[in-house]
Amino acid sequence: MKKILITGALGQIGSELTLELRNKYGKENVVATDIRKPEDSIVVNNGIFEILDVTDANRMKELVETYKVDTLIHLAALLSAVAEEKPQLAWNLNMGGLLNALEIAREFDLKFFTPSSIGAFGPETPKDQTPQLTIQRPTTMYGVTKVSGELLGDYYHHKFGVDTRSVRFPGLISYETLPGGGTTDYAVDIYYEALRHKSYTSFIGKGTYMDMMYMPDAVELIIQLMEAPSEQLTQRNAYNVSAMSVSPEDFEKAIQKHIPEFILEYDVDPVRQGIADSWPNAIDTSVAQREWNFSPSYNLEKMTDDMLTQLNKKGISENIKSGTNQQ
User: Which of 57, 126, 202, 243 gives 248 a disulfide partner, CB atoms 3.0 to 4.6 angstroms apart?
Assistant: First the structure.
């Protein structure tokens, strides 16, 4: 990777990935794009930034030509809960934007990455140690777009030789950027509320296990996968990846080691609970481990310690109230 363009660079993954790529490859070699341009954003202010609506193929092509891009990282998409509220928009954005990006990758011979998700699985998928290759019949529009994206990535690789790569991300947890409408959002909110109020009401029910990952691991694995030799990759669209399989009460116990008085309560949202119930409890990541040495650094305890430390540094406490804006 010498010159990288990122779509959806202000999102939960993009905001941290952009900064790490700029640190690694140079600010002048990473072009961040998004549909908006907030003036107070570090992503906007510390390097090249351009406005891009990914449904505008001509604008995307113009940016690739202008900056002589060789790698396209396509992150722009609606996430699970929002996609269920706006299924037509989700299809148009998630699939229309992806098709535009793949076409440009084909035309300009770009190395290409876009994330899939555990949302690509469905209720008929094996729930435990979910295999790399298994039945994928999701019951959400988000999941439908993710399965379609995996197949489309495979098609562009086999038909046109595009160097497509992807992973099925679990829920992602970050102290930098708040999530934007996902089923796993509770796993971020719980840390903020633990510090602010020493309590949290979960919209996901007790005993609901889902795969999760800390954002530093997610950023590192994207770079690691993109730097892996192409000939090593057999399941390029998309690899199972995860760092931990956890339930709300697992977060409760981990937080109580730091904040003993923390209380977890429940007010289950049937929409997001239904989505969570259609996903695996824990997936098998052995193929990613074997083919490109995937190995996350953070477990639940290490992540909890760092999350609470970092949020304290940011001034999150019970005396501070702010709105919250992942799979």
Answer: 202
